[in-house]
Sequence to fold (261 residues):
Amino acid sequence: MSESGDWDPGQYNKFAAEREQPFWDLARLLQPVDSPTVADLGCGDGRLTDALNDRLDAASTVGVDSSPAMIAAAADHRSDRVYSQSGDIGEWERVDSFDIVFANASLQWVPDHPGVLARWANSLRPGGQLAVQVPTNADHPAHRLAGELAAEWMEHPPPDPVEANVLAPEGYAALLDELGFDEQLVRLQVYAHHLSSTSQLVEWVKGSTLTRFKQPLGEEEWLRFVDAYRRRLLEVLGERSPYFYPFKRILLWGRRSSTAE
Fold:
């Protein structure tokens, strides 16, 4: 999932229900295929990879992730049809090997989306489908304040991957067309999350965007950074209970021509 340090599956899954909403919305964009072969890129702890395999009645599903902690957790979901492997999804390519390439909330962590999506498209057989979801909420205060604070703590802080890497929705539509997808759908969706308090928003980003600071800061300094971030965020947003968190995401789907070129 992250290319900038390891992840904590427990922290990430504190908001499992909210994070699953776009996953299943993305899965619903897929058109039926008999016993497809599936790649889940940025598979995380493998729980949803297993569920996706069941939903699609797939012949096999491979999950790929760069996080050792996530891959270790995914081993619990291994079966005769589901397995996982460590890998860099930004460089991943398996020419003409899959019916479905699926990536939920992982593409944002790697740069050069035109190049990455070209490799993923090349991995599809004729008639294969690509389904990708990326967050596009870099303008939310929770993200802006993280970047501002990091600039005070670090000489060269890692950039917000969403701001640095994610294209506009129309950019992905143009890209799918260039890559030869005869059918496509690209949409921007705002998810309405109701957190118990503003403080819970800190717990949310602690399991996602703040992880990029953990490796360069070190564990102890990172925990102090998170405490400072919490104070800064509450100063700006105030402690509200409940807290409404609007989360923008791009969902894109495409089907390649069924005729091999």
